[in-house]
Structure formats: structure tokens, C-alpha cells
Amino acid sequence: MGGNVAENLSNQSVPEAAARVAAVVNRLVNRIGSNAESRERLAEIEIPEELRDNLALFLRLERRVLSEYDPEIADLFDKILTAEIVANAGNPGSRAADESVDEQGVPTADEPTAVAFREVVDLIDSLPLDKQQVIVRAFTSFFHLANLSEENYRVAQLREREAGASTDTEVDPANELTVAYHQLVNEMGVEGANELLGKLEFHPVFTAHPTEARRKAVEGKIRRISNLLEERPRLGGSDLVENERHMLQEIDALVRTSPIALKKPTPVEEADTIIDIFDNTLFDVIPVIYRRFDDWVLGDKAGTVPPLCPAFFHPGSWIGSDRDGNPNVTAKVSREVAAKYFTHMVLKLEDKCRRIGRNLTLEATYSKPSAELINLWNHQVEMSPRYTARAELISEHEPHRAVMLVMADRLNATVRRITDTMYHSADEFLDDLRVVQRSLAAAGAKRSAYGPLQDLIWQTETFGFHMVEMEFRQHSVVHARALKDIHENGIHGDLQPMTREVLDTFRAIGSIQRRYGKKMAHRYIISFTKSAQHVADVFELAHLSFAHEEDVPELDVIPLFEQLEDLEGCVDVLDQMLTLPVVQKRLAQTNRRMEVMLGYSDSSKDAGPTTAMLALHSAHFSKVLKKLLGTSMTLKWRHGDRERLWCIDPTHPIAAGIPEQIEIGQEEMYGEYFDIPKPDDVVFAGWFSGGEIFRSGCTFTRGYGKIFYFQPGHEEYPVYYMPQIQKIIKNAVRYLAPVRREKKPADCIHAEQPYENGEK
What we know:
Blueprint: H1 3-10, H2 14-30, H3 35-41, H4 49-69, H5 71-87, H6 92-98, H7 112-125, H8 129-163, H9 176-198, E1 205-206, H10 216-231, H11 237-256, H12 267-298, E2 316-317, H13 331-359, H14 371-383, H15 385-394, H16 399-415, H17 426-442, H18 446-449, H19 452-463, E3 469-475, H20 476-489, H21 497-516, E4 523-527, H22 532-544, E5 556-561, H23 564-577, H24 581-589, E6 597-598, H25 601-607, H26 609-616, H27 623-629, E7 636-647, E8 661-671, E9 681-688, E10 693-702, E11 705-710, H28 723-736
Parallel strand pairs: 1-2, 2-3, 3-4, 4-5, 5-6
Antiparallel strand pairs: 7-8, 7-9, 9-10, 10-11
Helix pairs in contact: 2-5, 3-4, 4-5, 4-8, 4-11, 5-7, 5-8, 8-10, 8-11, 10-11, 12-13, 12-19, 13-16, 13-19, 13-21, 14-15, 14-16, 14-17, 15-16, 16-17, 17-19, 20-21, 20-22, 22-23, 25-26
């Protein structure tokens, strides 16, 4: 927020900067003031006016709340905020790498930024604990408000941009999905594009570590303040006064509320995080995304014809199911979390179904029901005379409305597990929805058919009755130990507690699938997969967990290759995995589809982010290298050729100690044309027994960085074991090492006074 202020201060002497800081502090301490005065305090910060206005508003309201709470806290808030602006002058990240600090990490220099930092530290250290806690809450609440200002501005800019977009264009510039679809249409025609569109799937996952630390109570207050801020520009007079009163009320409560729960939530309680996001965002926003695509692609026909956009959003969750390293996630917990997701989801669909049904007041005379809908109604009468009598009483001569109200009652019965009337799957509910939709369309009520009813169909296709797909994860070693225990003691013997828990987990998955549907619990992830045997272990344990084969759940077993060693060996593991009969059987059930997880966070922890990234993108045709070089990287290739590697620039540092030629018995052939930018240097050239030649060793400079492209080396041949090749790689590492070593940040530096006569 105060970058430019701080940068200006950093160019002054320490006394000058201190005097200026004192002036700012005095203004802040002595004046609560109006919005205009708050804007004055932010005048030197180069930000858009709308954003500045909202920041000024929140700064004023925050200070008013703090002054009412404790004037001393308000003064401390002003002093710390102003000093922090100075302390963060310029580029603090770059400066921190080289600046001298004490044993606590506090900078020791005499520059204004360091002085301001120390003043903040000393001030906070001098406060009693209760004052420190209040100050932390004050800044936490203000940061929430600053973020809201930025988000509000960003939304306003997006809306302004969208308002200026012409609906006559072929693509929606703010919707990349329409851009991609239009490109597909141009490349492969409408039919081919629609076929690929139908296969689109986006699978975001709610992780279990860390779960959302911020309390739902805090989230609610932030959300209400956001709504008040959004409506504020449309208000005036007493309405504006009332808006500000509500803002002050929420900000005051925000400051006084603990930012995190006083009690650590259980895994079952953590599931409420997903439910909160679902209720406030996902359930209503996802069909809007689908609709927006349809509106743009279908034009005037949108909402009157069958939709084009598929329900491609299918969220997953590790909360309540990820047990790798978390002893609190048990089979019992997974069952409870699944029940919570299911109950909330079905009740949400019931509410939506009932609201849509109540609005389907289409009289049969003008919107004749189809024979298919009449048949559905007769089936409902046979199923529950009570439901249908109640629906008919309030929906006389409105058959579509009556059918929808009975469907809502059946959803309620699904939650209560009333066998005679419940829906046994989301697909069964979808079938009924589509009967209603087809009847409405055939009756000419196309906007009713493809309006809110289509939104409900999309929501059901997206979330089913399960809301999220629970992803079970366990360490490969746990499976191996459980199997060893079972083989030694028998499935009904005196087993270790962890072994019993592993078996109970598979039984919980089976129970969840039978009760709530297979989609809720079919993904099983093996962390630290190092062999195909680890995959076979999961299938064996799943079968050992049940007395009857028909009770074994359907599992998509997903190997997770995390550490660098795992990434490097994953190809061989996958090859061996595909030979397993249980895997082949599952592939036959999934239309030859399987999932693999690569390079999760542990690969970066294990080897560093750069090395891990290179392991994930280790081929010449990788996206990373193509992005760096800005070309297609296309070339010719063939396996199993003899290569003679010629050193054609013996003066280059990478060629130091390398002979004129190196014979490689077997290698993958690369041949020209090689689509790369013109290299700065060509150090090596390869000749292959098939007659091809290739620029096998090239260097490039990009900014302050350097790139060395080297062709030799393939997983099928032991090229990397050759001493000469290892020597080239070592030379290249030394050559590529960074040489830029500034001790100061590369900012614009104010020049000192010129020298005169050799002296300052």
C-alpha cells in the first residue's frame, strides 16, 4: 500500500526521513477526520482513485472503531502502520538477501528502512501481551479490509471490461473457454470441437493440509462487509448512513473476534469448510459459468435450445479421507464426513427443486404435458398417494409443477432413508428432471425447459448426491506392513491396530459406495509409490477386507510419485503396473482411463523446486523449454543409432578437457531441421550412422540467465555413465552458474554529490 511513499523516503537522509515520518504520524494520530482527510494520507500512493477511495473509507472506519475501543490502541496502530510503510521501501525481498541482521533477524543498518523496522520491533516488544494481541487483531482486520478494497476494484474493472465487450464477436474476451472452443472449431470443425468439449473435465481438490484456518464467523463478517461495500455507490441520504453504521458494526465485531477457532476443529468439523464454500460460491456460480459459455456460443438461441456446455466441473476433497500421516482420520471419520456431504447436498437440491417447481405455474391448457410426463406422474401416484395428493392440491391443472414438487418430497425422503419413496441415485433424479425438461420443450415452453430447470440439471450433473469426490490417501509402507501382518496372523487373527484400521478403511469405502453412490468414494491414492507391487497391495487389501466378492468396492487406484527418485523411476513402475491383471480389469471398466499423480510438494522439498520441475519436464519437447525458447522444438528422431559427437568449438568453457570426438555406441538419433532460435554458440555437433547430423550442444542467453541444450542421453542407453559425457555436464553446470552478485537491490539509485578536485 505504501510502496511509493517508502521509496521516496528511502532516498532521503535518516534525519529527513524521520522528520517526515513524524509528520505523517502526527496527522494520523491527531485526526480521525473525514474520507477526504483519509484520502490525503493516501495521496502519495500511486493507486487508482476508486481503490484509493475504498482504502480511505476503511482506514477511517478502522480508526474510528479502534478509537472507540481504546484511543491508545488507535495511536499505536497509526505509528506501526506508518513505520511499516517505511520499513518496506523499495524491494524488501531483494534487500533482505544481503542486509546484515542480528540474531533475531532484525536489520542493523542505519538506512531509513532498517531504522523504521527496528522502531516497530522495539515498540511492539515494549507492549504488554494483551496490547500486542489487540494490535495483531487490529492489523488483521485492516488487512482483511484492504484485501476487500482490492477485490472490489478488481471486480469493478472486470465488469467494466465486460460491459465494453461486443456480443457480436466470435469469442468472449473474458472467457478463455470460448476462445479455446473457437480455436478448436477453426482447427477441426464444429463436430470435432463438440466431441472434445464433451470430454472436458476439471477436477479441483480441497486439500486437507492445511485446512482453512480462518473461522467461518470471520468469513461471514468479511462477506457482509463486502456486500455493503458493493452496494454503497448506489446509496445516498439515510440509506448511506445506515450502510456505514452496518459497516462499523461488522468491523467492530471483526476486531473483537478471535481470527481462529479457540478449539482445533476435528476432521469432521473441517468438512464444514467445504460446505461453507459450496453454499456461498460453488453451488450457484458453477451453472453461471456453464451458462456464460452457452450465451456466447449459442447467441440468441441460448436458453431456448439444449445446452452445449457440459458439466465439466467435478470437485474432490482430501478432508476426512486423507489419512497419510494423520491418525485422526479414521474409517469412522470418513463415514461421518461422507454422511455430512450427502445430507447437505441432497437437501440443497431439494430446496432448489421445490423453488423451481413452485414457479412452474404453467397451465396444462397452454402447456400440454407429454405422455412421458403423465407416465411419470402416474408412477409417482403409485409410489406415494400422500405426496401426489398434496402436490395436486396446490397445483391443479399444473402437471409440471406437481411433478417437481413430488420430486422435491422424494429428495427429502432420500435424506431420511425412506426406502419406498427415496431416490437411490443422483442418476435416477436426473432422469426425472430430463422428463420434465423434454415435456416443457415439446409444449413450447422452451425458456422454462432450458432456464432454471437446466441450472438444476447442471448442478446435479456436477455435484450429484455426493457434493465432492472423497480421495482416500495412504502411504505405500502402511499397505505393505498390513499385508505382512495379515499373511503372518491370518485375516481373523490378532492383527495390529493399524492393520485393522486399513481393513476398516476399505470397508468404509464399500459402505459409502453402497449408501451414497460410487462417485463419492472411488479414488484411492498411494503416496510414495515406488513399485507396481504397491498398486497390487491395495487391490489385495481391498479384496481381503470383504467376505463376499460382490461387496468389494470399485477403486481407481492412483499412484503418486512424489520424491525425485520416484519421478525418475515412474515410467518403469507404470509399465509394470499395466501388466497387473487387476489393473487391466479396472481399465476395461473405465474405457481404458487411469489417473497418475506426479510431483506433489514432496518432490520440491526433496530436491528443490527447480530440480523437481526439471524432473517433471525432462524431455526436449517439454512445455518449460518451449516457453523459454519461444519455438516448437520440432525435430526428427529415431532409436538405436550409433553417434559420433564432434567438439566443434574447443575454446568454449563447456568443451574444456573434451576430446575432438566421442563415440557413443547406441543413442537416440535427433536430426535437423531443429526448430530453435539461433544459438549464441554451437559447441557440439552429432553425426549418426543413418547419415543425419544435428546441433547437439547449443548455448543461449536469456536476460541474466543462460541455457545449455545437450542432446546425448536417453533412458534406454547408458550414455550418462560415460566419463566424457559427465565431464561435459560438469563443465556446463559451472558455465551456467549465475555471475550477477550485486550487494544492493537493482533499484534506481539517487546519485551522490559529484566529486570536485578528487574530493567529495
